[in-house]
Prior knowledge:
Blueprint: H1 3-20, H2 26-33, E1 38-40, E2 43-49, E3 56-57, E4 60-61, H3 64-67, E5 69-77, E6 80-90, H4 91-103, E7 107-112, E8 122-131, H5 133-147, H6 169-176, E9 181-183, E10 186-192, E11 198-199, E12 202-203, E13 211-218, E14 223-232, H7 237-246, E15 250-255, E16 261-262, E17 266-275, H8 276-287
Antiparallel strand pairs: 1-2, 2-5, 3-4, 5-6, 6-8, 7-8, 9-10, 10-13, 11-12, 11-16, 13-14, 14-17, 15-17
Amino acid sequence: MTKLVVAALLATLALPCTVQAAEIDWKKVDSAMGKTAAVSGDVHRYGLPRSDLSVTLEGVALKPALALGGWVAFAPMHGEAMLMGDLVLLETEITPVMTKLLDAGLDVTALHNHILRATPATFYMHVGGHGDPAKMAEIIRAALSAASKTPFDPPPASPAPQPSIELDTGKLDEAVGVKGVANGGVYQFNVPRRDPITEGGMTVNAALGGANAINFQPTSAGKAAITGDFLVTGDEVNPLIRALRAGDIEVTAIHSHMLDENPRLFFIHFWANDDAQKLARNVRAALEKTAITKN
Length: 295
């Protein structure tokens, strides 16, 4: 075999690796979504808040960042991308959106409530997929635009100033044990689990929904409405919900979000409207019943 033939053969064998290593054109994905992603490491996450809805619960007008913050995220995987996301839908939007997603080849991995007694009722559809991220973005946008009123507004010319958080956020940070961030008038905490979570060989990090999420929305006089989800293994479910009930925090849902994750995980959703510092301490007491990362 001549050196020329050997070189050609080696080049042919190397071609799949070259294609697999090709970088994703994230500008095309942004264009398909009609939004610019928030980038965390390799993960590109797109917010899909239901800012079109006016949802109230026990007299509290819920801000999108508290309990209406839909999203999808893409992570590079074997030359393509893995998609994970959570779409916020009204009851009448569920079946038409699901049908369009399934017909286009995406997966639905969960459908459930997060909160109770809200008006109007909202539901949360978790989605997944693997493939060309721009094509999957087109599918998501087309389904939501055709079968729901999820906004796809163009980004503002200049970012609006963050609404003030009328809470002592330093004390909340101290009580919860991590630093929170302000987002749309809501103070948000992400508390990672101690051990890695994987699905399909990929690490499911916080940007992909792999962390405890606790949100505080100021209500009045140092009080806050809180909701979000705790991420736990099966043996942690009942210790956690016992701790929540001991802290006067309502448990509103217990369910899965993914299908093939390792270890098997459950998401515990919750609600309370009370003194913010008291709730932060009780949230931390509940977190201590689980395997979280500690500073």
